[in-house]
Amino acid sequence: MRNRSAAPLRAALGMGLALMLGAGAAAAEEYSLRFNHVLGPNEPYHKGFQAWAEKVKERTDGGLTIEVFHSAQLGVEEDIIEQMRQGANIGQNTDAARLGNYVPGIAVVNGPYFVGSLEEAYALADSPTMQAWQAELAKEHGLKVVCFDWVQGFRHFFTGKPVRKPEDLAGLRVRTPPAPIWQESIRALGAEPVAMNFTDIYPGLQQRAVDGAELVYPNITAGKLYEVLDHANETGHILLVNFQVVSAEWFDKLPADYQTALVEECRAAGQATSAVIADAVAKAKAAVQEKGMTVVEDVDMAAFRKAGEKAYEVLGLTEAKEKVQKEIAN
């Protein structure tokens, strides 16, 4: 009798132990993210992404790790985005222009003269319209925006001749990323846009496939583009706001505290890196001048701003632009 009554007890104890071990295994589950960006290892962004990774690992006690890959080591940006949509544990530093291929309205962030300061860029996070676009990206297209507090600075036209007004860009083939808002922005400002991957800019200029590029000053020094370009024309036509994006499917599987850590540390690292870049721009500008580039500062900004409006009109984004700008101004 004693043996028969002990059997159910042993079974219950065994089941309880198994449940406890299972719960412990679930709690100890580890997650990883492979994060890709196109910039070089000496760019401020790369160090910023590494800092983000360190903070997330620290906050999750190693439960969530991020491995950062520079110079597009994991592949072309557009291909990475498609992998994320399929649920892969991959992240990408991208921009609103490319995200606009999925949710057209969000592309306005990469339009000409959309925001003019870090404060305006950070205020975008509180825009109801921006929040709605992000929700649509996640629900309908599988792309989770972790944060977009990474501001790479003002983009200018870097060419082989001085540019002071839109007419001076006539006939020039200027490298741009392959996205409608970028293509139309450069076309509206007076140049002929040529879609080209970031890593192909230097050889593209060498081989005269393009006559110039529109970039930020630190890109020029990091990529030694002063060797193939002569003039830095300070049009400041786009304040480049970058988006850190992961798979929505992958993100939703993370524990809630891991999600919070990933987002909060992304914002903190982004704003810290943006401040570093703002300081680095002056140094990069001085550096390209030392390398022989001529800086053109007397640019007709009014003419460029007026010309830039055509990009929004062509893409049907004028109303979206005005709506978001009104929201961040309040």
TrEMBL record:
Keywords: Signal. Residues 1-28 form the signal peptide. It holds the Pfam family DctP. The keyword Mitochondrion does not apply. The keyword Cell division does not apply. It comes from the Bacteria. InterPro entries: DctP_fam, TRAP_DctP, TRAP_DctP_sf. PANTHER family: C4-DICARBOXYLATE-BINDING PROTEIN (PTHR33376:SF3), PTHR33376. This is C4-dicarboxylate TRAP transporter substrate-binding protein. It comes from Marinibaculum pumilum.
